[in-house]
Design brief:
about 30% helix, alpha/beta, about 220 residues, 9-stranded mixed sheet, 9 strands, TIM Barrel, binds iron/sulfur cluster
Length: about 220
Amino acid sequence: MTESLRISELFYSVQGESTHAGLPCAFIRLCGCNLRCSYCDSCYTWNEEGRLMSVDEVCAWLEQYPGLMTEITGGEPLLQEAVYPLIKKILAQGREMLLETSGSLNIAKVPEAVRVILDIKCPDSNMTAQNDWDNLDLLRKRRVAGSQDEIKFVLSSAEDIVWATQIVQQYNLIELFPVLFSPVPERLPPDQLAAFILQEQLPVRLQLQLHRQIWPGRNRGV
Ligand code: SF4
């Protein structure tokens, strides 16, 4: 079945990230990832088979949350070709859609109506070489066409903060996109990141994963 997806989990929770943090959201988490970030909090998706579901079955699950914001995440959701018919079908329902992607795969086929949350992998992720920098040009074009995409840096150290700040400035990211700086909880104290942002008067958004604060220790279903 070409239009089937390997689903890690379907769940309804509070959106914990992005400028939409705090809002109710229906999540579709797909299996598989081509990266191995050092801090990954969803590494259970890497090799799991998951549940094989058709696009129609996933949309049927969504029907219990009519009109609600929907996010597709992973793993890396763009690895599965059937994600595109799924996106098309969800958009046809008139929902606001978010797509979390690692930034390592080209986003050219993602419709502009989807709000892409694009990661840029920092050095301490050990995945910087996997960043597909062409995506930044695509994001600019999407922005001109009216997309509301966001860019996220997950930060593990002071070195990551400096690196991310250089990238933000080099590519003038703040001009066009909300830029999210998100600390890895066990590695970078949020107050250290906050102090840097304030000191540099950097107009980025400090993002603390809201769901981890509400449900500490829970890795799935939130
Ligand atoms: S891209 Fe996301 S799911 Fe994949 S290894 Fe990195 S943090 Fe984990």
